[in-house]
Amino acid sequence: MQVLPNTCTCTNRPDLFCSITATSEQSLSKMSKEDNIDNMLDPLFIQESGEVYRNPTQVQMSQIVLPCHANHCGELSVGQLLKWMDSTACLSAERHSGVSCVTASVDDINFEHTIEVGKVVNITAKVNRAFTSSMEVGILVMCEDLYTSHQWKVCRAFATFVARRTEAGKVQLKQVIPHTQMEQMEYSLAAERRRMRLIHAEIITDLLSCKCQTQEYKDAVPAERTRVESVELVLPPHANHQVSTFGGQIMAWMENVATIAASRLCNAHPTLRTIDMFHFRGPSHIGDRLVLKAIVNNSFKHSMEVGVCAEAYKGGEPLRHINSAFMTFEVLDGERKACTLPRIRPEPIDGKRRYKEAIARKKIRLDRKYIVSCKHTEVPVSVPWDPSNQMYLSYNNVSALKLMDTRNNWVLTSEKNKVRLYTLEENHMLFFKVVMCVSVPAEQTFHLLSDLRRRKEWDRHYESCEVINQADEDDTLYRITAPSVRKGGKGQDFILLASRRKPCGPRDPYLIALRSVTLPTHPPTEECTRGEVLCAGFTIWEESPSDTKITYYNQATPGVIPYISTDIAGLSSSFYSSFAACSQFLENNLNSMAPSVETELL
């Protein structure tokens, strides 16, 4: 698709977000990858009314991998796959917007499998959410064996497209209306993914502020040896229906020179594993000369990062920056295991800067892999917190709560005076939620409940609460103590990350998400048993200017179950007294705005 500068702006605050996250997937277990894949592959959905529903923005492309699409190994070229993905996603965006669209950015892509010649590639794309003039398109790539009918996931990606201006002016996109549980989940999480995109550069800057020494290795390969420069003339076959260079074509050319650079380091044929999030900075057109430059920025034990830049010019014009990307390669042996790679010796000045930036990006990839990705079985309930992974823990925290909120098979366990307790047991995991309505404006409710220091005023399970760290205006770390449920027993303490979000649009609630983290400054003590919270929090919906619906969620962990077991079993209604006290607390503070934690710390 045609590419434009990073112009996907939105007048609303990008305060909510997306994607199936680490412990979120663990939390909601079998709202699993298989379920997600089935929902994206099957274009038809039978609603409860019996009507057949098909997502109007969904586009599917199927291609047989021919030798002309393959590399030297007889596997589908990643560049060719990127072109197919970009075309499918653009068609979906244009189906929703009704006008021509351009690729603005693509999130991280992790390629889980290669695709052999003779296999079928099935690509599904649909618009998850539309903002003012930009929209997020989800892309799923599956590989199919025609002889066995077996299918498996190759990668999943999220691309941002911008609707082009028309003669009437800037396009105001119509909103996406989610109809299924899966669509509601993606709609909700899309805003949070957008939030991550907007602050991605800040994270790199923060990581680079930490001192990082360039290590000297014996027999290191000079980075200069891996440098590649190539030029491409943009011809009509490389252009889209808007007479501009395909974004996918540019990505394919970039992948080509990056592969050559990686090969020069290892003297072997590398396999592309990931492409980091990138933004298109400017458009390219037929007749442009596209200059592509690549170099290995850094090599690690089993992987290497290649930086690649695309610039365009025409005639005597100066070079225009089109795009920069960072790609991670591995070299696989005969058993498909990663080989040990030679180390790199960076060039002076710019080479050392790129070397250090590659280390920072590797840290981000690891954070995403073990916090945001589906590798959640490899992390404990409480993930270590530090400023460098704050954004990803916050993302995980909010997305886990959003995923729980999309569940629709809750069972009503108890009700008293319009306070309702629901439970959900799934895959040996117990979830519960409490729902009530209050005559307090939603924003006021949000501010009062998001300050956990005041929760002890209505929740008898909160004995004390102190602020450990105010990370930013949306994320706060607390230490909370709770009394023992047994006489003479030790109380519990929790180290919680509280992440709050205001609505990004009218279909979004206020959110207060809670999860446990670990801090080296606050280890467990002998006085208290360290408890853990995997996923908990509030969703706050505005029913009217003066009425609010509050839902409290919690995924039961060993540290939480003792406090709610009698309510779940129907032997007590103490939950009612707690939330009745919450309602009274909110109404008593109707005209007072809770001071921010930042204000009090000052």
Automatic annotation (TrEMBL):
**Residue ranges of every copy of the START domain listed in the record:** 410-579
Associated pathway = Lipid metabolism; fatty acid metabolism
UniProt-listed GO biological process terms: acyl-CoA metabolic process; fatty acid metabolic process
Please tell me which top-level EC class this enzyme sits in: hydrolase
Quote the catalytic activity from the record: tetradecanoyl-CoA + H2O = tetradecanoate + CoA + H(+); dodecanoyl-CoA + H2O = dodecanoate + CoA + H(+); butanoyl-CoA + H2O = butanoate + CoA + H(+); hexadecanoyl-CoA + H2O = hexadecanoate + CoA + H(+)
Any GO molecular function: carboxylic ester hydrolase activity
UniProt cross-references to SUPFAM superfamilies, sorted A to Z? Bet v1-like, Thioesterase/thiol ester dehydrase-isomerase
Indicate the segments annotated as coiled coil, or none if absent: none
Q: What does this protein do?
A: Has an acyl-CoA thioesterase activity with a preference for the long chain fatty acyl-CoA thioesters hexadecanoyl-CoA/palmitoyl-CoA and tetradecanoyl-CoA/myristoyl-CoA which are the main substrates in the mitochondrial beta-oxidation pathway.
What name is this protein filed under?
Answer: Acyl-coenzyme A thioesterase 11
Recite the lineage of the species.
Answer: Eukaryota, Metazoa, Chordata, Craniata, Vertebrata
